[in-house]
Amino acid sequence: MTAPAPTVAVVGAAGYAGQELLRRLARHPAARLLAAYGSGAAGGARRLPALTRLWDGEIAPFTVEAVAGRVDAAFLALPESAAAEAAPALLAAGTRVFDLSGAFRLRDTALRAAWYPATPPQLPDGTAYGLTEHAREAIRTASLVACPGCYPTAALLALQPLADAGLLAGDIVIDAKSGISGAGKAPSERTHFSETYGNLAAYNVFAHRHTPEIEQALGTAVTFVPHLVPLDRGILATMHLRTAPGVTEAAVGEALAAAYADAPFVRLTGADLPEIKHVVQTNFCDLGWRVDPARGRAVVVSVIDNLLKGAAGQAIQNFNLAFGLDETAGLL
User: Fold this and answer.
1) Statement: the pTM of the whole predicted model exceeds 0.70
2) Is 150 among the catalytic positions?
3) Would you state the pLDDT for residue 183?
4) Catalytic one of 71, 142, 146, 150
């Protein structure tokens, strides 16, 4: 007898990542989308015209009681303070949680308090950091999956295999450029059309909270410089690296190929460096690289859609693993 499809709810469904979750979960072949909620209890129910005939439900006001124990899995696309409050109650009711905020990503208590002060001092039991391609076994048994940030996803998919293979030596510089949706839906001066159109600006240098997330995974310090570009979505991260003696372009390719031989959403482009337009509206991460062996330097370029592989798509990929489904379900 076929097992019943796991039931899911989306909380924070009106935001950019939340809408992407709805768009894909509504058509997921092995999940039942039961309900969608806003980010809080205020306001009335609303519909999303962009999802007409894809999903015709209403986004209801959110309370923990409305979700806890009602579904098998809850996707939280909430600010970290709200996610930190909601997740433990959902877990206590037996609902598995896939959290898109930063509330549970950092293992170190002091770092988490510094960068996410609204979060609890202890991580819930059964928490896994959900960089899918590098945490499959932990995700399968986790009760709470802390889905990585968009910049760390792009950076770590490029860097983790090289670090694990011992190919890196010295400074790591990550120059990353993101479309404006990465800043979230709440308007600000920085994301105002008049400020972003025709402009490119670095921001939060040495002050971005994705830095400790990247450093946690790599076990070393990095220089991370994010930029905002006048695109609606997409990330291009260029990693400037010093390599160990004797590292060649072929060695970098072999390390990445070995790491992602069974990874359906990582595509290796080699010396043909990838572009944002190749991955927008997909859950793919494309990786390209060039190596200068004589000077001991390498450049690796990683591109993702920040709202999919960097948020909603990766969360669904983790959900698929956690419930024993085809990893690509609802994403191809």
Assistant:
1) yes
2) yes
3) 79
4) 150
